């Protein structure tokens, strides 16, 4: 429960899953009342400049195979398992779900080997179980996430249980996040805006467009994905949604078009019906087509501390953006690294959390 008034010692810019996960890690360590989240868009909003509500959303092998991505995946899996295990998927909107992933070629061996070490119920499928054209496949228990509802859950939990303050504001420059002299550290979790926001302007960032469909298909209970050379097809049951599924999709590098296209809808319906027996054997009602822009970055996500002088004082920015197609599965691991990067500053702020010692 909230015991202290909020202040602005810690500012998080961005209220997508990446910023919310940083707030959660800090709040779980007792810093909730020192955090202000500043964001142009908040959970409950929809906008082309706010990716998180458009995520599918699941844990999958789609992430990179570099050491950071492997570690963030494992930390994220463990975090999401906890949210699914708390016996309240209707609150967290995270659920354990059986999953199958199929590859037509280029199996990311390093990733599969690492995943096999921690995923629940992991199994490599036998060659006689593979559909035509598939070279390799695995099954395991994944986590599926109702993305728009999950970020609303985090938003309410952070405000009500930990006293985190949220302010709706579009910052013209990252240094405007230091508007209060209290502010010692700013976490930059601005997603796609990192490419253009003055004070960041990271030209390695680019959007990766994906069109998806929201379909009511209560017969679908299994998460299934097929990774092809030039396509990505998936069927993701959406937890706590009265039988809705997300069908996808596309990975269009450098495309920032927020429109949706009927020929893409037709292609998704054809590919997903070929892929999922559960889908084609049950009733289907198309509810919506949506397009979202994954905040991608050449070389992977940036989690890095930088110093900045504000009014003669040296302060810290911790950059945390570029999660691409994996912000929900990797965001918690990224947040742990981002909080670690802030290190000593947070130790100093701990003193503010002990008002009784000043009485
Ligand atoms: C179709 C699709 C499917 C996906 N499927 C999955 C999946 O299955 N699993 C998975 O893990 N991920 C998935 N993703 C990826 C996931 O959605 C992203 O990685 C994630 O949402 C990125 O979160 P973010 O917080 O970095 O950015 P965003 O959600 O875009 O949030 C950015 C925040 O920064 C704020 N902001 C930006 N600039 C400013 C400014 N100047 N001032 C104030 N505030 C500012 C915005 O208002 C917003 O609050 C998918 C994405 C798409 C599009």
From TrEMBL:
Cofactor: FAD
Residue numbers binding FAD: 51-52, 190
Residues the record lists as binding D-dopa: 227, 234, 294, 325
Residues annotated as domain FAD dependent oxidoreductase: 10-336
Keywords: FAD, Flavoprotein, Oxidoreductase
GO CC field: cytoplasm
Gene Ontology terms, MF aspect: D-amino-acid oxidase activity; FAD binding
GO biological process, one term: D-amino acid catabolic process
Taxonomy, superkingdom: Eukaryota
Family assignment from sequence similarity: Belongs to the DAMOX/DASOX family.
Listed name of the protein: FAD dependent oxidoreductase domain-containing protein
